[in-house]
Amino acid sequence: MGKLAGKKLILLGERDGVPGPAMEACFKDSGADIIFSATECFV
Amino acid sequence: MTRAAVKGTAYCLGYASELGYWYGNTPYTERVEHGESEFLKKLPGAAQSFAEASGYPPNLVFTGSMTIKELEACGQPWYENLRGGTRYGRYGEIMPEDEFIGLMDICDVFDLIWLERTFAESVRSKLERHPLLGGGQLNRLEAGHDAGEISAETDGAGALPLYFGGRVIGCCRKGHDIDHNLSAHVLLENLVCKAGGVLSLLHLIKNSGAAPEDIEFVIECSEEAVGDVNQRGGGNMAKAVAEIAGCVNSTGCDVRGFCAAPVDAIILASSLVAAGVRKNVAVVAGGSLQKLFMNSRDHVRKDLPALENCLGNFAALIVPQDGVNPEIRLDAVGSHTVGAGSSPQAITTALVYEPLQKIGLGFADIDKYAPELHIPEITMPAGAGNVPESNYKMIAALAVMKKQLEKSGIQGFILEHGLPGFAHTQGHIPSGVPFLGHAADAIRAGEMTRAMIIGKGSLFLGRLTNLADGLSFIVEKPEGAVSGASGGSSMTREDVKAAVLDALSELALSLRK
Fold it and tell me: Does A12 touch chain B if contact means CB atoms closer than 8 Å?
């Protein structure tokens, strides 16, 4: 548990950068509550 | 197994500034939500003119009027270093907007496009001078309608006005009274895509030294959905394109996969050829009306030229290997599988490292990598970064992780194995395939051994999965002409297995005697 414990996270991913599911995997054990995660394509 | 090769390619741009201004998704949505806003007032003045677009270096590279080396030597911003305007290039052309609208009418078999009579006459005289349009196409161009007939269609009958030079010169009519899948807007998008596909297929036939009758199968790989309420996305834009191009011996099918579809389609076309099912398979895609001016809000806000007013279109002809044309390596296809993971590292591993491993190559054995080749001057002001460069950084970083490159060599690797982006933000069009023509030329000229074409598709945009997709293939010198780690071998693992089995069978037979 780190400084994100108890926080609510909104994750906005980008296909050619870091997609949402990849960020979700990173924050899975952070103790944070992922309330929204999405990947968008800007090209 | 027969091997598949790239016999020809075609790349065309359809200048479509007024179509984009009215029906590109960004300005269209702005108009619906905010009316004639400041952005919409400024956009026409910010857009490149046809003369500017036909001298814009990335466009010249796309159509084959300029080499990639020349683009790399060209000072940036490229929009301030325009060259002499050239309509026709080695691979295709940049077609003026009035002629493109005329081509849409040629492609319309349901009397959806109506052209005002004087415009129709004007465009006919221009298209009659087009080097690739024959009677089969020109006879399809309508004589035109009175302006009053057109305004009756646009004022309450569901038709969308078409503009040229700031005035209404025609309309696109709806295909059904209540089915929104056949609304004028959807049909306009589909006809734009079809016309771009036809234009590229005609150039492909010429570039390949083929006749229309030689084309046996067309795979269309755009992002449009063709169909009505009962079969939205029913498809076969391919056969519709083949019909107008005069490919009477062809049938076809569509492949969809967002921006990855062209790479999918070339792999499938090559597989059909390699299996002996088809010869002369044309892969074709027209452009996307919706994506015109997609990032223009940022361009206008930053007082930059709005460059996204060209439709991108391409075609490639896949044939059985003849020892001359560049070969598609079907034994080294990259696939971003369902279980591969979504991190950039996992994606690059699946698309680049794993296919190289399959045939015993290293990262440096690929002369040039071609991921999404978006023009950076379009994407960077909109916050989407330099897309090809981001991909090259990831490939180089993976090469470092795999101990095939020193960390200090990353920048050099990017310069040596990367490409500048020169394709418009047309979704499926930039996805690696714009380099196929340049790569094929360089391979035929002995200046390059192999290139990797990489496509990625944003499947999550369809709201059925959170996954993205990706595919890659390697194009290289034909068998026998390749030196290096794997290319010198003329036998695949399957060939060796078959030879061993044959030998064992013969041995068994001889022992029985």
Answer: no
